[in-house]
Amino acid sequence: MRVLLVEDEARLAETIVRGLALERFVVSVAATGPEGIERALHEDFDVIILDIMLPGASGYQVLRAIRTRDVRTPVLMLTAKDGDHEVADALDLGADDYLSKPFSFVVLTARLRALLRRRTPQQQTILQAGDLALDPARRTVYRGDVEIGLTPREFGLLEYLMSRKEIVVTKAEILHNVWDAHYDGPENVVEVYVGYLRRKIDVPFGRSSIETRRGVGYVLSESG
Ligand code: CA
Question: For the chain, which domains are there?
Answer without folding.
Answer: 2-117 (3.40.50.2300), 127-220 (1.10.10.10)
